[in-house]
Write a structure and sequence with these properties.
Layout (H helix, E strand, L loop, with lengths): L2 H5 L12 H16 L13 H18 L7 H6 L2 H16 L2
Helix pairs in contact: 2-3, 3-5
Length: about 100
């Protein structure tokens, strides 16, 4: 362990390897949106752009976090984290349940 590693907490370093749960969330959402696009529709059969957008955000965040792709910009890092994936998934479920 070098002196540099001791000065910075371990949370500053990205988690190496795959994050299985985030990656599985991204894969399941990708399959869901391709095979059952009706999940992003409202009760009258029209498209629900908010539900679709939040589902896509959860999918992209799941893939980025699951494959350990960490952007340099702090805002993008927050939007593509595993916590953001969970938040977007919960928001999309709430939006879909409101139909």
């Amino acid at each position: 362990m070098s002196r540099h590693d001791l000065d910075h907490p371990a949370s500053d370093h990205p988690d190496p390897g795959f994050r299985i749960l985030s990656l599985a969330t991204g894969v399941v959402l990708a399959l869901l949106l391709v095979l059952f696009p009706r999940v992003a529709m409202d009760r009258w059969g029209g498209a629900d752009p908010l539900a679709a957008g939040v589902l896509l955000w959860a999918m992209v965040a799941g893939f980025a976090s699951g494959l350990s792709l960490v952007p340099r910009q702090r805002v993008l890092r927050g939007l593509l984290s595993s916590e953001a994936c969970l938040l977007a998934l919960v928001l999309s479920l709430l939006q879909i349940a409101s139909h």
